[in-house]
TrEMBL record:
Full protein name: DctP family TRAP transporter solute-binding subunit
Alphabetized UniProt keyword annotations: Signal, Transport
Secretion signal span: 1-20
NCBIfam families, A to Z: dctP (TIGR00787), TRAP_S1 (NF037995)
Species of origin: Pseudothauera rhizosphaerae
Organismal lineage: Bacteria, Pseudomonadati, Pseudomonadota, Betaproteobacteria, Rhodocyclales
Length: 334
């Protein structure tokens, strides 16, 4: 019913790209769900500045952070319906538009470091995944880093068994569901905007996030411990409504693509710097204890979560998984 309402509303609205050919400026509404000072929030603002400068004022990007325009539950349908021109959703959400292929990024311990991530997101596999979005009414412009995820709770999670019995918030992903059930936890799918309050009142007991998300959303005021598990990578795909994009003059698309290329470099650097700064600020705040893992502890996590990869082959094409393993340099646990 909600989807039908969006389509009706979209039919009543003019298409900004079509108007752009006869009037300036073109308005791009860029909606996202994190804080303005999170890496994605900063990158969105940087793209907005570049777009205005490089287009000579022909483009105005309006950035709507913190789910002010659309939240997790609505943003993908809103993009398809033309109620927003641009999003940068986390990759788990993209299955709403396409297949389960983007869930491969949720596989635990798939990437050893950021360089391994970029061999996928900045290589042929990443381009193929983004190009595949056109059939679903979206154009994939870029991948943006956020960072490696850490586990939080009101107790230290040094070993996989420490998660057992907890209600853990996740994004909508079967891979993440399997991850949590494999650890003996109860996965709870929840919009990002609802997480802090849910942690505060005990509706969920913990979650997984890069440190920058954890800190900028003030989760350290609702969780006593953050364990540096580095168990998964969280990234975004910058998507634009296809009808809007194809309605722009070719020269303007080129300008925006160049601006997005520069914004992507900025975004990835902001993710590295933002997570380091957030970790330092978190440790200085004394609000939550940061728990490090020994090499033995980390091995235990990796071994405990190895079955998630096998389960994923029921949903994600095995050939794609094998290509990603080769490019990322992932070696399955013996």
């Amino acid at each position: 019913m909600r989807r039908l309402l969006y389509l009706f509303m979209a039919a009543m609205l003019p298409i900004p790209g079509a108007l752009a050919q006869g009037a300036d400026p073109v308005v791009i509404r860029f909606s996202h769900v994190v804080a303005p000072d999170a890496p994605k929030g900063r990158a969105a603002e940087h793209f907005a500045r570049l777009a205005a400068e490089r287009s000579g004022g022909r483009v105005r990007v309006e950035v709507y952070p913190n789910s002010r325009l659309f939240g997790d539950k609505d943003e993908m349908a809103a993009l398809q319906a033309g109620l927003v021109e641009m999003l940068a959703p986390s990759l788990s959400k993209i299955k709403v538009l396409r297949s389960t292929e983007f869930e491969l990024f949720d596989l635990p311990y798939l990437f050893a470091d950021v360089a391994a991530v970029h061999r996928i997101t900045q290589g042929p596999i990443g381009r193929e995944l983004l190009d595949g979005m056109r059939a679903q009414g979206a154009v994939g412009l870029a991948f943006w880093d956020n960072g490696f995820k850490q586990m939080s709770a009101n107790r230290p999670l040094r070993r996989p068994q420490d998660v057992r019995g907890l209600k853990m918030r996740i994004q909508p992903s079967k891979v993440l569901e399997t991850q949590m059930t494999t650890l003996g936890a109860s996965p709870v799918v929840m919009a990002f905007s609802e997480v802090f309050t849910s942690l505060k009142v005990g509706a969920v007991n913990g979650t997984e996030n890069p440190v920058s998300n954890f800190y900028t959303q003030n989760m350290h005021h609702a969780q006593s411990h953050l364990t540096l598990t580095d168990h998964g990578w969280l990234g975004y795909a910058v998507l634009v409504n296809r009808t809007f994009w194809e309605g722009l003059p070719a020269d303007l698309r080129n300008v925006l693509e160049e601006a997005m290329g520069e914004a992507t470099v900025f975004a990835n650097r902001a993710a590295l710097e933002g997570n380091a700064a957030a970790l330092a600020a978190l440790e200085a705040s004394g609000q939550a204890e940061v728990v490090g893992l020994s090499a033995e502890d980390r091995r235990a996590w990796r071994e405990a979560l190895a079955p998630v990869h096998e389960e994923a082959r029921r949903r994600i094409p095995a050939e794609l998984i094998e290509r990603v393993y080769r490019e990322a340099g992932y070696a399955p646990s013996p």
